[in-house]
Specification:
This protein is mainly alpha-helical. Among the domains are: 76 residues, no CATH class; 135 residues, Helix Hairpins (Orthogonal Bundle), CATH 1.10.287.70. It contains 13 helices and no strands. Helix 4 crosses helix 7, helix 5 packs antiparallel against helix 7 and helix 9 crosses helix 11.
Length: 403
């Protein structure tokens, strides 16, 4: 009988995270249902009582009154309000709209009403959202590089004070800020603390501005900042929507700067938190492995070596397979002498990983990064790929499986 291969670490982490997200969603739904359901029922009861009183006092039937209210709701959806508001589709309003589209905030207070506008939005958002996500990733890479440069300078200063570094030590001209001390990387937890403090400070300053200009209370302003900066964008509170403000041009500029910086900062913070969550998942998986009996653990290890490609072994297997292909005409003979049962599927996967590593090395070399640093970097999981997780794994410490 054919035995099924056990789950490797990546699949185990994925399933564990899926289970935790499902539980997190269920817990959140329970809490919000308990908190908001009584208020919703009370508001519905008050509204029904108001409708009945209005119908009785002004001698209007309830069906006619409900038809009028449906027309009012349609006007609300089209952006028509009783009080004077700013034009929705002049150039500043349209610029505000496209900004919320490409950043995926999507307040919903302005939506295209024409067929041509809806079709153009689909095409416009496809490239705009992709380009903005790329910009967020580049911003993340640069903010991490800046923090790494500052933290490395502080680390070198601390080493000089402790006498572990010569006083006349200087960074080499070929070394960038990240690679001046070989083997040292900034801690992900220190970066998390710095980004958290910056995000809180930015939100507090923006909330103070919205409280003074929009007239909201401070809690509502903080709520708006989080919903906007995290690109959730409910649309129940939207800034810069009145017809006129005092110092309107200055306020619109400040509003744009706060939203722009807030979205970039919270995006970076979310990615750092995701690394911490990944560390917690790795710790839970190791705890599960420790509870297994030694016999099962050994058999699982043997099966995983035969049927799964572990992140640390892909590059080694690729090197062995290349040597074997150069010496043996038979693929079976090469696999037997290499000590591993590598199928063609595994060989293709290892080639893709090695190609990604090579592309990363060429890119870092072209941008002035030290060649030995990018070669000696541990490639765990998808750290050689592209995206926010790859940036964090390559830039920060405490992201490897050994920690």
């Amino acid at each position: 009988r054919r035995r099924l291969a056990p789950l490797n670490e990546d699949n185990g982490r994925f399933l564990l995270l899926a289970a935790l997200i499902a539980g997190y969603l269920s817990a959140g739904a329970t809490v919000f249902s308990v908190l908001e359901s009584p208020s919703e029922a009370a508001a519905q009861l008050r509204w029904n009582r108001t409708l009945q009183n209005f119908s009785r006092i002004f001698n209007i039937s309830l069906p006619e009154l409900r038809a009028f209210l449906r027309s009012y709701e349609a006007a609300m959806a089209a952006g028509i309000r009783v009080d004077a508001l700013r034009p929705r589709w002049d150039f500043p309003g349209a610029f505000y709209f496209v900004g919320t589209v490409v950043s995926t905030i999507g307040f919903g207070m302005t939506t295209p009403a024409t067929v041509a506008g809806k079709v153009f939005l689909i095409i416009y958002g496809l490239f705009g959202c992709a380009g903005t996500i790329l910009f967020f990733n580049l911003f993340l890479e640069r903010i991490i590089s800046l923090l790494a440069f500052i933290m490395k300078a502080c680390h070198e200063r601390q080493l000089r004070r402790s006498g572990l570094l010569p006083p006349n030590f200087r960074r080499g001209p070929a070394m960038s800020g990240v690679g001046s001390l070989v083997g040292w990387k900034p801690s992900v937890y220190h970066v998390l603390l710095i980004l958290g403090i910056f995000a809180i400070t930015l939100s507090c300053c923006a909330s103070a501005m919205y409280t003074m200009v929009e007239g909201w209370n401070y809690i509502d302003s903080l709520y708006y900042c989080f919903v906007t900066f995290s690109t959730i964008g409910f649309g129940d509170l939207v800034s810069s929507q009145n017809a006129a403000y005092q110092n309107q041009g200055l306020y619109r500029f400040g509003n744009f700067i706060f939203i722009f910086m807030g979205v970039c900062c919270i995006y970076s913070l979310f990615n750092v938190i995701s690394i911490v969550i990944k560390q917690v998942l790795n710790w839970v998986l190791k705890k599960f492995e420790c509870r297994c009996c030694p016999k099962c653990h050994k058999s699982s290890t043997r099966l995983s070596r035969r049927n799964a490609i572990t992140p640390g072994a892909r590059l080694r297997r690729h090197n062995i397979s290349v040597d074997a292909d150069g010496q043996y005409d038979s693929d079976t003979e090469g696999r037997r002498l290499s000590g591993e049962m590598i199928s063609m599927r595994e060989l293709t996967a290892s080639n893709k990983v090695s190609l990604a590593i090579l592309q990363k090395q060429l890119s870092e070399t072209a941008n002035g990064y030290p060649r030995n640093v990018c070669i000696n970097t541990r490639q765990n999981g998808f750290s050689a790929g592209v995206g926010a997780l790859a940036i964090m794994n390559n830039r920060l410490a405490e992201t490897s499986d050994s920690r």
